[in-house]
Amino acid sequence: QKFLISRVGEDWIFLILLGLVMALVSWVMDYAIAFCQQAQKWMYGGLNSNMLLQYLAWVTYPVVLITFSAGFTQILAPQAVGSGIPEMKTILRGVVLKEYLTFKTFVAKVIGLTCALGSGMPLGKEGPFVHVASLCAALLSKFMAALFGGIYMLRNTEMLSAACAVGVGCCFAAPIGGVLFSIEVTSTFFAVRNYWRGFFAATFSAFIFRVLAVWNQDEETITALFKTRFRLDFPFDLQELPAFAILGIACGFGGALFVYLNRLIVEFCEYYTIELRLVFPAMVTLIISTLTFPPGFGQFMAGQLTQHESLVALLDNRTWSRQGVAEEFDYISHSHAWKHPQVNVFITLIFFIVMKFWMSAVATTMPVPCGAFMPVFLIGAAFGRLVGETMAVMFPDGIHADGSVYPIVPGGYAVVGAAALSGAVTHTVSTAVIVFELTGQISHILPVMIAVILANAVAQSLQPSLYDSIIRIKKLPYLPELGMGKYNIRVEDIMVRDVRYITLSSSYRDVQEVLLIGQLKTLALVESTDSMILLGSIERSQLQSLLSLQLGPSRRLDHLRRHAKDNDTHTLDTHTHLSNLGNMDNPLSPPCTHTHSTSTSALLNPLPQIAEWEEQQLDEPVDFNNCKIDPAPFQLVERTSLHKTHTIFSLLGLDHAYVTSTGRLVGVVSLREVGVPVH
């Protein structure tokens, strides 16, 4: 152990193990998901002689998987429902969410996500993988702390920051984009010291993930997940930049609409489906499966293709149509899915975009582990493909430059649309980098960046990001961004003046009353009620320990034994009564109140003596030598601006801060008070 720590270092060992575990988890899950999706196609294809049986197989299979996922998750760990990024965003700013980083949540997340994605519903795995990686990091920290005796438990935030990057990195085999994306969606302020940890762990994880694909003979060598073959000598013309810009602006409006629609559905479902946790996902799956049934409406929207197959086709660099007629599908994979004898490719793409848009918005609200990044990414690619095919029709001979003819590349528009729409929904720019790593080409770097920035500008002015929207819906304790027109508000305008505090002369009864009323994690310690000079702060747990020490079972039994000895009535029955007292009273509850008796029967029923003793103990002054006092709690002055307060709370992850005037405690401002004027 000492050799490993001295030669390799604790951080390197931890990050290597984290990357290795996450790569294995990602690869196994991908294998299981692909197997489930192929099983559905196998059942559908094997029943081609009877359309009714085909429909039943096509619909029943995903309904069973989704229902199992919802039921398993609700029973084992309801915290595993949803994406996980909003919760991780909250945890990384210092808030403790119970049961979100436990082993049973990890099991529920992995199994539930595998079943949900295996059903073929328009769901993603990028958000849940951030949560899965964080779960791995938390569990691995406990293991490493037990093995090496390190300080992992004290550096939880650093390890979780690296884990968020690993989650995206091994999901898309995009380590650089994964690190940048995790920073954008989880951190208001990012500690640069964690930068190398995220890059190293994400790179190692992505490498192992792709090596496993080669080892399983899925790939010949390590390549991008959705490798494109755009021409490099002239990928796009300068005259196409306005089309890319319009595409980005349109994706900005589309992203804002998606977030708004998703929020409406979530609020509706939370109100009406409290007792319908299994019925709601089953009904949604039934409707979506029915609409994507290939002989039905699915024939107009490539219903039989998985998300991976659809994205491969949409990113193809060759034009699908000539003058709107689908006639060159022979060399495109999965051509039968997009080709229809009565409908041209534009109608198919429009129908695909519209249907997938609302289907994804509804499906991502189901109470199962799922994300929204991949469905949005696919919709953006389809919209970009539609614009690209339209440009190819408008310029059938391509763009003329230097006497050469360069045809339009619709696949390039699909790449731009995918990055722009996913960036608009998540309010991130790093989707551009993820796209480059996914496709293996950066030939369209300029149009992608233009479209992503414009999409972000439009979406941020209309709606919060999808993750911030979920945070608001779940009412998680997170501080939103400070809007315009809030700079003239000061701390004295929002602070709570009725502060709960204790003094150096406080009795245990005062401490008990303050603990029963107050809700803050720490309580202010002042010199006296008259001076109100702030001396420090004490955590609630410390004060609870003081009360337990003062009124604990051991002291209670000692008192009763002395009382019994003084009265010479320490019989066997009395001893039995004393040994059964244990944790009879909660120190935070009011003391016992019983009538007193001096008879021997009162000693056999010792409650009156305990009540009298507790009253005496509660009136004694508190001995602060037995607790830890923070001598320098965070303080603000009354004239501190809301803008500065917001920055400090976001940077330091504060839960509250005391407001002082010349050293005197005058108020307290918490996360709630800062968040109210922000909204």
Question: What gap, in angstroms, lies between the N and C termini?
Answer: 51 Å
User: How big a fraction of the residues is strand?
Assistant: 5-15%
Q: In percent, how helical is the residue content?
A: 55-70%
What is the averaged pLDDT score? Answer: 77
User: In angstroms, what is the radius of gyration?
Assistant: 31 Å
Major pleated sheet: 3 strands, mixed
Uncertain spans, ≥5 residues at pLDDT below 50? 4-8, 323-332, 570-576, 581-585, 590-604
Using DSSP, what is the number of strands? 10
Identify the overall geometry.
elongated
> How are strands sequenced across the largest beta sheet?
5-6-7
The total of helices stands at 28
**Oligomeric grouping of the chains:** single chain
- Structural class call reads mainly alpha
Structure, explained:
By secondary structure, this protein is mainly α. Helices cover about 60% and strands about 5% of the residues. The chain contains 28 helices and 10 strands. The strands form 4 sheets. The chain has a 3-stranded mixed beta sheet. Strands 8-9-10 form a 3-stranded mixed beta sheet. A hairpin with a 7-residue loop joins strand 6 (about 520-525) and strand 7 (about 535-540). Helix 23 (about 555-565) runs antiparallel to helix 24 (about 570-580).
